């Protein structure tokens, strides 16, 4: 397992700096470039490279359209992990990589294909098509009848979380998440985690409306939303948090309220970023196979370019709950 010391040595910073960056310490006075380097080193050390000796090399040129800016990647390393996996896989396949800006307004010539990482709507799709018709989407699937995509099964993941918490005796379960926009910020992207939570709570006959807290997918928003939830005193014993970065903020709010995880409140999240194993207690989270998603996207674009395949593919990657120390059996009065 990768340690904080390993990351510090490779990044050329102190162990304390790595610890504070991985815990999203806002009081730490280091540049975003240093933060990104630490996250990138952490992901690279945690990355297990497959044996690609038998794969025929190619000489394509592929553009990466990254929905997140580099600053946003630092706050939520999910897309950073996917991007790094795409870049590594492209390097192993001798594919030249160029980058599109988040606004996709860079006029690129002679690009064979695009790997679009993030949430995209029809408006963004129309812009991407001006660069290349060969597109693979990662983490969203606009026009799945036309374009390849790689997504993870968040519906099944959320059902698994609820079943897991129920086995631990939790019934009053809160949900902390964020809002994302597509189509030039005009439309709300429907979040499968939130939708499934609502559907499953309705099926269980539980009124979820006062247990739902929505903000942004950042550590600060996770902190503010959890603080508000605790102030509401709704008797919630377990919280589902939409990503690990928000969960770290939620941890801070719980600690400031002099409550303990998991003795007083259980917390479970999504992604299994490198940060989740280093916080205290280690975070129970749904593992999203981000590296595999990135690698699969590259394989799909190669397949498109080599075979000129006409039928699109939508690859759905499974998930797995990684049980650590942030969830426990609910206390019962005997």
UniProtKB/TrEMBL annotation:
This is LacI family DNA-binding transcriptional regulator. InterPro entries: HTH_LacI (IPR000843), LacI/GalR-like_sensor (IPR046335), Lambda_DNA-bd_dom_sf (IPR010982), Peripla_BP_I (IPR028082). Pfam families: LacI (PF00356), Peripla_BP_3 (PF13377). Residues 2-48 form the HTH lacI-type domain. Signal peptide: none annotated. The keyword Transcription regulation applies. Keywords: DNA-binding, Transcription, Transcription regulation. It comes from the Bacteria. One of its GO terms (molecular function) is transcription cis-regulatory region binding. SUPFAM superfamilies: lambda repressor-like DNA-binding domains, Periplasmic binding protein-like I.
């Amino acid at each position: 397992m990768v340690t904080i010391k390993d990351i510090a040595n490779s990044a050329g910073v102190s162990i304390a700096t790595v610890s504070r960056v991985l815990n999203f310490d806002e009081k730490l006075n280091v540049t975003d470039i240093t933060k990104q380097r630490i996250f990138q080193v952490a992901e690279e050390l945690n990355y297990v490279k497959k044996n690609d000796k038998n794969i025929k090399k190619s000489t394509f040129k592929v553009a990466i359209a990254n929905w997140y800016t580099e600053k946003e990647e630092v706050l939520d390393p999910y897309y950073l992990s996917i991007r790094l996996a795409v870049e590594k896989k492209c390097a192993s396949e001798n594919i030249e990589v160029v980058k599109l800006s988040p606004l996709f307004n860079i006029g690129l010539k002679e690009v064979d294909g695009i790997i679009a990482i993030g949430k995209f709507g029809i408006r963004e799709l129309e812009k991407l098509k001006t660069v290349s018709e060969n597109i693979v989407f990662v983490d969203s699937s606009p026009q799945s009848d036309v374009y390849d995509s790689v997504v993870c099964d968040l519906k099944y993941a959320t059902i698994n979380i609820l079943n897991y918490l129920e086995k631990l005796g939790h019934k009053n379960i809160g949900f902390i998440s964020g809002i994302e926009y597509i189509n030039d910020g005009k439309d709300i992207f429907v979040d499968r985690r939130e939708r499934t939570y609502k559907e499953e709570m309705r099926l269980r006959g539980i009124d979820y409306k006062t247990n739902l807290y929505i903000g942004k997918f950042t550590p600060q928003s996770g902190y503010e939303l959890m603080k508000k939830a605790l102030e509401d005193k709704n008797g919630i014993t377990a919280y589902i948090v939409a990503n690990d970065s928000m969960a770290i903020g939620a941890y801070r709010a719980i600690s400031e309220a002099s409550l303990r995880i998991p003795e007083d409140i259980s917390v479970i999240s999504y992604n299994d970023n490198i940060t989740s194993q280093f916080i205290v207690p280690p975070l129970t989270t749904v593992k999203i196979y981000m590296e595999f998603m990135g690698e699969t996207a590259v394989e799909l674009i190669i397949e498109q370019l080599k075979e000129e395949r006409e039928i699109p593919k939508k690859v759905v990657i499974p998930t797995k709950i990684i049980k650590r120390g942030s969830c426990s059996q609910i206390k019962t009065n005997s």
